[in-house]
Amino acid sequence: QVHLVESGGGLVQPGGSLRLSCAASGSIFSIGFMGWYRQAPGKQRELVATSTSGGSTNYVNSVKGRFTISRDNAKNTVYLQMSALKPEDTAVYYCNAYIRPWTGTVDDYWGQGTQVTVSS
After folding, report:
1. Secondary structure of residue 104 in the 3-state scheme
2. Which DSSP state fits 86?
3. Is the pLDDT reported for residue 1 higher than 90?
4. End-to-end CA distance of the chain
5. Can you point out the beta strands (E) in the chain?
6. 52-66-50 Cα angle (round to 5)
7. Using one digit for the tens of pLDDT, what is the confidence trace for 45-104?
8. For a pLDDT cut of 70, what percent of the chain falls above it?
9. Are 96 and 36 in contact (CB under 8 A)?
10. Helix or strand or coil: residue 71?
């Protein structure tokens, strides 16, 4: 089995920073796409940042210049460094990854979510 476990959420004041981590564990052969989504109360889940196995990254316009996605392939971990946080960044953040296990085909995996609250 494959699992994604997120950490690093919490309460931060506007203008502050947080770093989210998402570690994949289990019977993993390879990991392709990894990304972060978020869902605020009453809103649809939105894609925040993505990272391909080749090193390409992409961001939703609202976080460009403030958030940075990175990954440590040796640790099967993806990070989201968030800076200059705004109240509108408040949401539950979810990690997503396309993973090929040692047995079976590529599948889409999700973490359990971590709450980020930006408030004074």
Report:
1. coil
2. -
3. no
4. 41
5. 2-7, 10-12, 18-26, 28-39, 46-51, 57-59, 67-72, 77-82, 91-101, 107-110, 114-118
6. 15
7. 999 999 999 889 999 999 999 999 999 999 999 999 999 999 999 999 999 999 999 998
8. 100
9. yes
10. strand
